[in-house]
Amino acid sequence: MLIPISNIARDYAWGSETLIAELQGREPSGAPEAEIWFGDHPGSPSRVDDGTGRPLNLALSEAGIPPLPYLLKILAAATSLSIQAHPSREQAAVGFAREEAAGIPRDAAERLYRDENHKPEIIVALSESFRALVGLRPVADTQRLLASLGAGGGVGALSAALTPTDAEDEPAALRRVIGWALSGEAADVVTDLSAALERAAGDAADASDFAAERRVLREIAAAFPDDAGLIVATLMNLVELRRGEALFAPAGVLHAYQDGLGVELMAASDNVLRGGLTPKHVDVPELLQVVSTASGPAPIVEPVEVAPGVFGYDVGVPDFRLARVETTFEAVTEIALAGPAVVLATGGDIVVEADGERVELVPGTAAVVSAASVAIGGAGDAFVAQPGGE
């Protein structure tokens, strides 16, 4: 099976008006274009471009192929997404059963667990720069950042609150501060932190170790006034990926993409626990049950060239595996498949062949392959998503 698929861009408010259009070589629509989903997820299944217009989930079912265990996306952010974390598979199963028993509709705004699956995810930068907040910075480093803003008022109170008590370790202190921030008790701190960030704009400290963090936090404060998520964002690592670099968000890790264009691959789930920078429902007690508050460096994934022109992003989850393919007219790249795959073109002109069938792809278009292997030729760049390994 080799069939081209397509989908429409989802117009979330944080989306870019230009990045996806530029990738696809068309005029912008004039509306935010945040994500294009390539997969069979019922929330927005791709359409089969074989003249029938069938949704991909129906086409796969009719072919006797089980649902894909992953969802591949193009993501284009102009402003911060919500701060969020995803549950483990065990946490998702418990939460889903609890909300089912409570009779909460699966499409209700307050619903947290819409399925029983976990949702680890990886994103690879397509733009020259892709910024994200991910994971929690060591407390001492956050206190140095806060000191660069001045020690008084709410900023000083936040710095003091981060110091673990005698009965705490650092993760416990971070969990306590996140709960305090999101409980509504820290409104004055949010106000003082926003004002301190604005006052510090352009001062000498903006050439310091935390210049980039201060700029991002100012942007967040301007876009989300009075949102307690600003405090949570202040605790997080800032990452700036270059084209081809990736980061991984496993279960429990807080993350919030800031801006840029990327290819995102995740387990097929819609379970999200939010931690601010959003008008959507934030369940603080449940977030604190799920979130990992271990501090440390951001979970960056370095691509490994596993074959000429083939770069793998190994994160060791059974749901998915991702590879980037750089093709030239001189050679055809063949990739063995462990199950149904999605090939997404992101540059140049790509030719995909499997079991005697052939599909030509241009940037921003994709195809589904169900075969033992897939051959990719032409000249350009493509991503191949497929099931992972145990």
Automatic annotation (TrEMBL):
It comes from the Bacteria. CDD domains: cupin_PMI_type_I_N. Keywords: Isomerase, Metal-binding, Zinc. Residues 3-138 form the Phosphomannose isomerase type I catalytic domain. Residues 31-53 are annotated as: Disordered. Its EC number is 5.3.1.8. The keyword Signal does not apply. Its cofactor is Zn(2+). It catalyses: D-mannose 6-phosphate = D-fructose 6-phosphate. Signal peptide: none annotated. One of its GO terms (molecular function) is mannose-6-phosphate isomerase activity. It is an enzyme of class 5 (isomerase). Belongs to the mannose-6-phosphate isomerase type 1 family. This is mannose-6-phosphate isomerase. It comes from Microbacterium paludicola.
